[in-house]
Amino acid sequence: MFNNLGELLCTITGFDSFSLQPNAGAAGEYAGLMVIRAYHMSRGDHHRNVCIIPVSAHGTNPASAAMCGMKIVSVGTDSKGNINIEELRKAAEANKDKLSALMVTYPSTHGVYEEGIDEICKIIHDNGGQVYMDGANMNAQVGLTSPGFIGADVCHLNLHKTFCIPHGGGGPGMGPIGVKKHLAPFLPSHPVVPTGGIPAPEKSDPLGTISAAPWGSALILPISYTYIAMMGSKGLTDASKIAILNANYMAKRLEKHYPVLFRGVNGTVAHEFIIDLRGFKNTAGIEPEDVAKRLMDYGFHAPTMSWPVPGTLMIEPTESESKAELDRFCDTLISIREEIAEIENGKADIHNNVLKGAPHPPSLLMADAWTKPYSREYAAFPASWLRTAKFWPTTGMPENPLYSGLTC
């Protein structure tokens, strides 16, 4: 089954060989970079230790590169969220004798497909480096394109995101890595049960061991294998299409109420998008965490907050939510925007309002005393559908002013 899964992942990604050993996304990043490092060392290029990372890459990328002993060079993005190609070119040429790799997320965390991704890969290759693609956003590629087709040399996949293993709750996860043929000999093995690449390369010079177990979190691999087998090529492609469609549907619904920060050249987003909340601090004293807290009153856990851009929410609906649920979330954000407007218009106090007071758990709502300038009903049931189904927050905000110091 492991061999079949590895071969299926090769077909999906356009790579020549896979290692199922890394048991997390970050472990996959580390493994992939170590494969690149082993490749350079096999060629006598021990001095290649520079890793270029755009600001639109995933946050674990620089940490993984640092763990591999690499020097990190950061490059910026343009106004549309794409990597600044000229800045990248200058960085690559300036470090051409030491360049080891580029770590790039595709589509980027800005929610756009890099229009110049093929040129980006060529720049790195022309200057002696390898391209590491962070595959955490593979949900927007399956059946439509692939890391191998684009020009990446190595990529990890979060099976706990794109391929059905439950995501969240602290794990377990899987981050297998796929590589092109020239990197396959260096895939990790295991001292007890030799593994190497799937399919096995003609020669093998494994970098060592990445996980304590030969195939990582092996017991959850059947989930991804079964999912891929049952979905088939059409089903997997449809999943990516629906994920992209859902994100664009939500972005279109919300664009009249919140600025959508980045879009592609055709005005669309990928499978995720960013709404900008920064302006509300000046107009209503509202911070992103206030919106995140108020979402809890509507029964939602907040999307990714203040990353990759501070003061924003990054929304990734995926393919598995119904249109009714997408609409419920959009309606919630629109309702919260109306609550912000009440503060902007002076109808609600800028310091004591339903967003600053959120979330409102049962213990607060049922207390004998209620000193807030809005009703308990408005706090608990801002939307009619909450009366029939609501996921309640279990705790509210501490009222102790020392809370302001309890941040990391």
TrEMBL record:
EC number: 1.4.4.2
GO molecular function per UniProt: glycine binding; glycine dehydrogenase (decarboxylating) activity; pyridoxal phosphate binding
Family: Belongs to the GcvP family.
Any one GO CC term of the record: chloroplast envelope
Gene3D superfamilies: Aspartate Aminotransferase, domain 1, Type I PLP-dependent aspartate aminotransferase-like (Major domain)
BP terms from Gene Ontology: glycine decarboxylation via glycine cleavage system
Annotated Glycine dehydrogenase C-terminal domain residues: 239-360
Keywords annotated in UniProt: Oxidoreductase, Pyridoxal phosphate
Cofactors: pyridoxal 5'-phosphate
Domain Glycine cleavage system P-protein N-terminal stretches: 82-188
Name of the molecule in the record: glycine dehydrogenase (aminomethyl-transferring)
Catalytic reaction equation(s): N(6)-[(R)-lipoyl]-L-lysyl-[glycine-cleavage complex H protein] + glycine + H(+) = N(6)-[(R)-S(8)-aminomethyldihydrolipoyl]-L-lysyl-[glycine-cleavage complex H protein] + CO2
